[in-house]
Amino acid sequence: MKETDVLIIGGSAAGMVAALTGKSSWPAKKFTLVKMQKDAMVPCGIPYIFGTLGNVDENIMPVDSMMEQAGVESITGRVASLDTETKTATLESGEKVRYDRLVMATGSLPVKPSWLNGTNLKKVFVIPKDKSYLEEMNEEIRDCRKIVVVGAGFIGVELSDELKKNGREVTLVEKMPDILPMAFDKDLADRIEHFLDERGVKIMTGVGVKEIKGKDGAVHEVLLGNGEVLPADAVVLSMGYEPNSRLAREAGIPVDQNGFITVDEYMRTPVPGIFAVGDCAEKRDFVTRKKAPVMLASTACAEARIAGLNLYNLHVVKTFSGTIAIYSTAIGPYGFGTAGITEARAREEGFVVETGLFEGVDRHPGKLPDARKQIVKLVAARESGIIIGGGVIGGLSAGELTNLIGLAIENKMTAYNLLMSQIGTHPCLTASPAGYPLIKAAEMIVRKIRKNG
Amino acid sequence: MKETDVLIIGGSAAGMVAALTGKSSWPAKKFTLVKMQKDAMVPCGIPYIFGTLGNVDENIMPVDSMMEQAGVESITGRVASLDTETKTATLESGEKVRYDRLVMATGSLPVKPSWLNGTNLKKVFVIPKDKSYLEEMNEEIRDCRKIVVVGAGFIGVELSDELKKNGREVTLVEKMPDILPMAFDKDLADRIEHFLDERGVKIMTGVGVKEIKGKDGAVHEVLLGNGEVLPADAVVLSMGYEPNSRLAREAGIPVDQNGFITVDEYMRTPVPGIFAVGDCAEKRDFVTRKKAPVMLASTACAEARIAGLNLYNLHVVKTFSGTIAIYSTAIGPYGFGTAGITEARAREEGFVVETGLFEGVDRHPGKLPDARKQIVKLVAARESGIIIGGGVIGGLSAGELTNLIGLAIENKMTAYNLLMSQIGTHPCLTASPAGYPLIKAAEMIVRKIRKNG
Fold first, then answer.
1. CB nearest B398 (choices: A309, A429, A432)
2. For B424, which of A316, A399, A430 is closest by C-beta distance?
3. Which pLDDT score, from 0 to 100, does residue A365 have?
4. Which of B323, B399, B411 sits opposite A397 (nearest CB)?
5. pLDDT at B443 exceeding the cut of 80
6. Of the candidates B298, B317, B424, which has its C-beta nearest A328's C-beta?
7. Which of B403, B405, B451 to mutate against chain A (most A CBs within 10 Å)?
8. How many Cβ pairs within 8 Å bridge chains A and B?
9. Do B426 and A24 touch (CB under 8 A)?
10. From CA B186, how far away is CA B206, in angstroms rounded?
11. Residue A143: exposure state from Cβ atoms within 10 A (0-12, 13-18, ≥19)
12. ipTM score of the complex?
């Protein structure tokens, strides 16, 4: 019987950060991390394996060496069962580990919808965070010319763009009226669609997939809801992920009806001494206060830090006060991102909002080389002016610009606060001080609030 | 006699933004802006005239058209005197303008130190925001091969790099031990010095200029404090700026001993109805609460917005609560920036601080093309953990990353808050979620606070 103070199950971003922050906070405790594969994938780097990076080996998080450096033992293996009474985990190898504190960081698994026929045909892929699967997939998809990607969330969009880079015919199918429907309002999604279109990805929105048809056991064509048939050498399903919480459920750790492990604001499950972080853990939206199925490595890391700091007592001032979904990505030289909730989602929830949308450039003067159009949309609650969401389209600084909106939301800044904010600007790095997009968008909101107030 | 409701004197960033925000806030009022030249220069674009942009015409702010679009009258001329009793401005042309509210946005002028001999020789330049001067200078400096730049603040550094682009021999002389001494601690300044050195700029620190010597009326050589002599076809003095407040002083508007026009947190001078914004207006440091000689277009714009919103009554919740100096710039593919105060400055002021310095990369995995080293240093007050300053070195997203530190300072975030912050990350746009530099630097501070607490 192995003994440890803290056992972490899962070796992706959430597990790793929980181990690192935990060990750094409680250096006298013994930490052990169990992970399924020797090497973990950089989660957000996965789509880039199929184009820019070229292979899985360029997309590795060196878990073992990072754990060794931090003084955390790491075991490659799979936990078969947990006994929360005796505080024991049993690995598939038969090995048993006694723990005092447990962190579940078991992540998520890609959805293969049961209503869709043909998902088990050869050359129908999903995108798990599994190195061997991705390695094999990268080989198998290499010579496929016609590829259909189903689902235009961030992974579907990134993957379509990457697969296209190697000269393939890529069709991206999305049943909602626009791509990235959870992340962007139509006004911004239209522009992003335009970038993707320019890169040669064929986009079909407002139409779902009805059936995947095979020939000799491999995929042959995709039948759409509108009767159209797309020939396909390969299909990639990016139709969402579900929390990987079977182990928790079987051990009697409470799980909600969507499969997320129940947690409080310190990331504690209802079972004493057991924490859950990352894709497998329940989340609440910062703005709507409703449960939110957000699965992002960045969110997972934030949760993992909270769990790590609070393993033995609750000594931090701040808890996890709700998930602010902050995503960003790039298509070629264009970056775009979103933080908080969209205008459409806000209205659905019953928020009375005002929005501001400013279009400028990300350099100044605009004649500098590399200057790109930059668009910022902000969504604020009308009465208080509090910023609840925003989107960015621009050059490659769009990621950090999106983080600025995230930080504004987290600090409950109002449009007035933003309007008065002090910002640094530089010709080669940002928009001009007189046309800084966050401030200009805030200004529009302030003007509308006054007019309607 | 011309009549207006609001008169703005100055057509650079501060004046323009005061006019735009003012008119948008008080649409029924008549706004008039007086500026010295038809076209204003994009202030932070000025160094780039001498390299990347090539000429002044690429660096123009279209003041007239922006004012026309906003419904603000704009006059090209110079105000000779003000009568604050009769509320009348007299232009050099003899024209008189009656106003109800006045905004002074007269900017700053480059310093030519009186102790330095030779500053009036031909081919000894300063960098004013004056289109005709810069146009002429760009012509005159074109064929100069050996150029000495005196003073390694942001403008000196940027200008040296730009002048070097055209194959010249550029020597940058700074009397302090490091370049950018007001903006960066030695640990970061050393690295920036290295970038500049790699680009071929010769840097001499810790040595001042003693005399500029001429031959036939034009500069010939520069004598340094250590006795060394630098041959020079041209010299550029970037030794600082002083507020352009003669007009205000002569009109009896109070001015402090450094020449800054006295203002309160609404940017009002002590004379009823008169505001001052931008380089000519007094500033107080957000952290030290002392007067601060910060002159930045971005700060000017923030002040101008406050004045514009408060011209007729004080209806905003937030006033200008102190200047957070936020600068950023680039040398080739490297961006760097600073917000708040440096560690050295903080210690000088008597703050008990802890710092965190994290080195990572600005992409993830680090093997992605264009990945650059990224360094973030944070400075926090030890007892409260409140972030009071920080510096960034990285790729071109360093500008917005610096703004994130600025927003953290403005929101009085602590290292704990930052450590728990939610951040979006993407392979092509940012560092990894597990190695996001702001959070990692905050983590180091938290660890030190605990150890020393």
1. A429
2. A399
3. 86
4. B399
5. yes
6. B424
7. B403
8. 275
9. no
10. 13
11. exposed
12. 0.93
The 10 Å Cβ neighbour count of residue A373 is 14
Q: Which residue in the block uniquely carries the two structure tokens 């440096």? A: B342
CA distance B72 to chain A (A): 16
- Hey, where are the domains in chain A? 2-109+242-309, 124-239, 334-452
Token pair in block for residue A293: 């199925």
Sheet holding B274-276, edge to edge: B73-76, B31-35, B6-9, B101-104, B274-276
Task: Say how far apart CA A37 and CA A107 lie, in whole Å.
Answer: 14
| Cβ-defined contact of A429 to B335 (cutoff 8 Å) | yes
The closest CB to that of B407, out of A327, A407, A433, belongs to A407
The total of other beta-carbon atoms located within 10 Å of residue A411's CB is 18
> At the topology level of CATH, where does A334-452 sit?
FAD/NAD(P)-binding domain (3.50.50)
Looking at beta carbons, which residues of chain B come within 8 Å of A417? 318
B397 within 8 A of A396, measured Cβ to Cβ = yes
Rounded CA-CA distance B173/B186 in Å is 17
Class of the domain covering B326-452: alpha beta
* Residue of chain B minimizing CA distance to A321: B420
Same fold, A2-109+242-309 and A334-452: yes
pLDDT digits (tens, 9 = 90+) for A65-109: 999 999 999 999 999 999 999 999 999 999 999 999 999 999 999
Q: Give the CATH architecture of domain A124-239.
A: 3-Layer(bba) Sandwich (3.50)
H or E element in which residue B14 lies: helix B13-25
Largest CA distance in chain B: 70
Taking a C-beta distance cutoff of 8 angstroms, is the pair B99, B311 a contact? no
Which pTM value belongs to this model? 0.94
Q: How far is B262 from chain A (nearest CA, A)?
A: 20
Place of tokens 């947690």: A263
What whole-number distance in Å separates Cα of residue A108 and Cα of residue A253?
Answer: 17
Burial A243-264 (b: 16+ CB within 10 A, else e): bbbebbeebebebeeebbbbbe
Tell me what pLDDT residue A129 has: 95
Residues of A in contact with B402 (CB under 8 A): 424
CA distance B448 to chain A (A): 11
Q: Which residues of A touch B60 (CB under 8 A)?
A: 365
The structure tokens listed for B426 are 């993407």
Give the CATH number of domain A2-109+242-309: 3.50.50.60
8 Å CB contact of B406 and A423: yes
| Res. B336: pLDDT tops 80 | yes
Confidence of residue B314 (pLDDT cuts 50, 70, 90): confident
User: What is the 3-state composition of chain B as percent helix, strand, coil, each rounded to the nearest 5?
Assistant: 30, 30, 40
The encoded tokens of residue B263 equal 């203002």
The answer to whether A397 contacts B397, with C-beta atoms less than 8 Å apart, is yes
Distance (Å) from the C-alpha of residue A89 to the closest C-alpha of chain B? 26
Instruction: Please name the residue that has the structure tokens 């004080």.
Output: B314
- Distance between CA atoms of residues A11 and B69, nearest Å: 57
